[in-house]
Fold this protein.
Amino acid sequence: SFRLLVAAVVATPCRGSSGLHAVSGKQWYQRRVRDKAECKEERRYIDKANKQERAKRKKEEMTRIRELVNNCYACDPRIKRFNEERKKRKQEAKQAKQEAYRQEQEAVRLRKEEEERIKKEQEELRQKEAKEKAEAEKKERQKQNKLLKAERKKLRENVKGQNYFCAADSSNIVQAMENLELLLLGLSLDDMKSLNGLTADIPALTSKYNSLLDAQLKEQEDKKRENLVKAKQSQEEHKEQTQNSDKFTTPDIALLVKAVKIFPPGTVNRWNTIADYLNQHSTVTRNYDNQDVIKKVKKLQSGEDADLKNKVNAQAYENFEKSQKQRIDEVQAGGGISNRDTVNSALKSEPEAPKNKGPWTPEEQKLLEEALKKYPAAAGPERWDNIAAHVATRSKKMCMKRYKDLVEQIKAKKAKQ
């Protein structure tokens, strides 16, 4: 049998031995060599060499045994048949699993299709019912309009036959005709039928016609009055909103600009703090809230109140000029310093001229290039201040932004090349 064959293979002598069993041959070889050792160090070396030799021979022997066993497995028909049957069973199990998965997916697909079909049929049925309902309502409206048209025509003829219930020489017949049309628009089908049914009884017809007309005119007057009240309320609300939006006076706007500079972005509860500052220092209005402040700042930033902003700036400059003149007069009256020194100090404290905010001109570009050459990167922290002073018409921030834009343009151009 196969087991006996494997046992015989294992019991086969190792190659290179002298006819003895592999293990006993190795033991004899080790004992013979160890006996020749003359000292402890040599025996230790021999043990180490024997250990390596044993590992090597064991590896070779195991490789030989595996090769023989594999050959036996390959040549034995029973093992071949067993492997084929196992492979077949695995293939059948795999196919069964795939078939079950396919059937499950098919069932899911069929269920979704069925749900979609039912949903589509329900939607079509709903649309059909809605369409039929709309058509029925349309037919009913057409029928009612047709009846209303007929009854209105009949009532119009009856009233016309009675000269619109006016005297023969009355001059109000045009107004009576307008009232009739107004009444026809407001009456229901039952009311018109009841009026048309009183054609034989003229007094009853006149009485009922006048009562219905009075009610219609009163209802129209009430509607007009209500619309007027609503329009007036709307105008008042709009006026109030306009007043609230324009409650910032010129001094308050100056205070707002100052408060925005005092409390920069990052301040805790910035807008509430600015509103409190305005309410504390304003001499006109003291009921500002954060929403009023935010709206006004957005308007000033967007340029909607550009004229008002320019006016505030001009007034601020005038106030500054007046204060400087007053200080100069006080110093001159006291005799503290000379007129020339006072004027020079006042001129030095004057605000800086407004910078150009438009596109850069060729002259400004040329000045910027000259300043960049004159003040290199090693010029120190005052480099950009000196560059801005050299350009004169641009601020430090504008010069730095222009330089960055030029650097980006040059990099982009080099990248394209």
Observations:
- The CA atoms of residues 275 and 289 lie 5 Å apart.
- The two ends are 82 Å apart (CA to CA).
- The chain is about 80% helix and 0% strand.
